[in-house]
From TrEMBL:
<dbReference type="InterPro" id="IPR002810">
    <property type="entry name" value="NfeD-like_C"/>
</dbReference>
<keyword id="KW-1133">Transmembrane helix</keyword>
<protein>
    <submittedName>
        <fullName>NfeD family protein</fullName>
    </submittedName>
</protein>
<keyword id="KW-0472">Membrane</keyword>
<dbReference type="InterPro" id="IPR012340">
    <property type="entry name" value="NA-bd_OB-fold"/>
</dbReference>
<feature type="domain" description="NfeD-like C-terminal">
    <location>
        <begin position="81"/>
        <end position="139"/>
    </location>
</feature>
<feature type="transmembrane region" description="Helical">
    <location>
        <begin position="34"/>
        <end position="63"/>
    </location>
</feature>
<dbReference type="Pfam" id="PF01957">
    <property type="entry name" value="NfeD"/>
</dbReference>
<dbReference type="InterPro" id="IPR052165">
    <property type="entry name" value="Membrane_assoc_protease"/>
</dbReference>
<keyword id="KW-0812">Transmembrane</keyword>
Amino acid sequence: MPWYVWLLAAAALGAAEFFTLTLVFGLLAGAALVAAVVAGVGIGLLGQLLALGATAAAGLLIVRPIMRHMAQQPLTREGSDALIGKRAEVMQEVTATRGLIKLSGEEWSARALDESLVIPVGAFVDVMEIEGATAIVHPRELLP
């Protein structure tokens, strides 16, 4: 019944992975499952330990670096979120309640971030955020 012991070890390692989220215990749990299969087939303790070691080494040396690399990929902004931080030109005076800007070749409704500002036609602004179909903007020269 050594396969049963390996299954218990895999469950314990899986629980440890659940709490740590490091991927190490999860890979070791997978290796323990491989050892359980090897034990279930009837291979002796040396074969079980070799299967455990080989699977754990493969997981830690191959799978974990790949997963780390995938987790570190920079997030790409899509849709209207990609417009935040872009420069735009004022097409119609922008106030706290209304205005029109040209942003990435399209006309967008806009309003000023600072409610006391009135941004004239022809001025350049930075898009600070997007609320629905309205860009919230701030004049470029007033930014620190």
